[in-house]
Design brief:
The protein is of the alpha/beta class. It is built from seven helices and 15 strands. The strands form four sheets. Strands 2-1-3-4-5 form a five-stranded parallel β-sheet. A five-stranded antiparallel β-sheet has the order 10-9-8-12-11. A three-stranded antiparallel β-sheet has the order 13-14-15, with no helix packed on it. Strand 9 and strand 10 form a beta hairpin.
Length: 238
Amino acid sequence: MFSIAVCDDEVIECCHMAKKIKDILEELKIPCMIRRFCNGRELLQASESFDIVFLDIMMQDLDGMKTAQIFREKSFDKILIFISSSREYVFDAYDVEAFQYLLKPVDETKLKRVLLKAVRKAGSRSQEFIVVSRERQKKKLFLDDIYYFEIKGRIVDVHGTEGIFTYYGQIGELEDKLRDKGFFRCHKSFLINLKYVEVYNRQEVTMENGENIVIAKRRYEEFCQEVLKAMRKHGGIL
């Protein structure tokens, strides 16, 4: 089931857009859950993780562009679709990796086409996951949501699209579990998701979320081989 958010400070517009989306997805027999928000702060404070977010730009208090910037800090890979009555912010939308920019009033044929593309993209995410334990509870962590693992003794910090999750574990066990899953131990304290590597040199790698991680000298050559494999796997033309 796809989780979708619609955020617009015009309540009638917000309800109308949510209904349009629901009707289209029901017609396509695609199960979904839709939540409506009347301002950016409500959206940012929501506990859910949405697959697709429809966001109005011209809102009071916290406008859509600022909301999107904050949203991207914790949800880098989610699909963001702007809706606006103005073309003025089209180029600004690229800065927050917007999937599409729709002009009001939104044409239903175009909305259907964009929704279908967005659902296909969201559905292409790997569903592989690991299960970890913390405070007598089990938590499922999807591999596609993880940028890297950072190990400090027995403490493991999982850096992902939803922030940082901490639990007790061992890097050796993690490395074995994630072998051939697109992860690489570039340093004794770091196990990274090669899918999210953006830039690298002999000293460090920069992930897509902007964080820099050190590469051990003795692991650099193997890292180069593995990251090229990952790039080819995910569509890179090399």
